[in-house]
Write a structure and sequence with these properties.
Order of helices and strands: HHHHHHH
Shape: globular
Number of strands: 0
Organism: Marinoscillum luteum
Protein name: TerB family tellurite resistance protein
Oligomer: single chain
Structural class: mainly alpha
Distance between the termini: 21 Å
Length: 131
């Protein structure tokens, strides 16, 4: 799975409210830099996002990481908008999950990225929502 593709998905969610700023931007920059993506490359993705890769090329781990990261991003600014929830649900369906996985994940993912949940247990729960 391409980190650029994942960052593109996160950027699209961050831009739902019309801007790419604040805690959402900081989290995306941090994730990008942690994965060897420069700030210039991330800003290029803001203007030219990459599409979601084909499901056939994604592992269950890839799908889980996509979902976990978008839910974390949705919650990071402590303001969750209906448009963000709908985007996350649509993405979940594209990844082969039932929409309900977003509310399940949302209840277990913390607003503060430094607080982590038991990812393996959470992954097992999420996989129950695969279609």
């Amino acid at each position: 799975m391409s980190i650029q593709s994942q960052l593109s998905t996160l950027i699209q969610l961050a831009k739902i409210d019309g801007e790419f700023a604040g805690e959402e931007r900081s989290l995306i920059m941090m994730l990008g830099k942690a994965n060897g993506v420069s700030e210039a490359e991330i800003l290029n993705l803001v203007e030219n996002p990459q599409p979601l890769p084909p499901l056939s090329t994604m592992t269950d781990e890839d799908r889980f990481e996509y979902l976990y990261n978008i839910v974390q991003l949705m919650k990071i600014d402590s303001q969750v908008y209906l448009s963000e929830i709908k985007y996350c649900e649509e993405l979940a369906e594209k990844l082969g999950f039932k929409k309900g996985v977003i509310s399940k994940l949302s209840s277990k993912v913390f607003t503060d990225p430094s607080i982590t949940s038991n990812r393996e247990a959470l992954k097992r729960e999420v996989m129950k929502y695969l279609n």
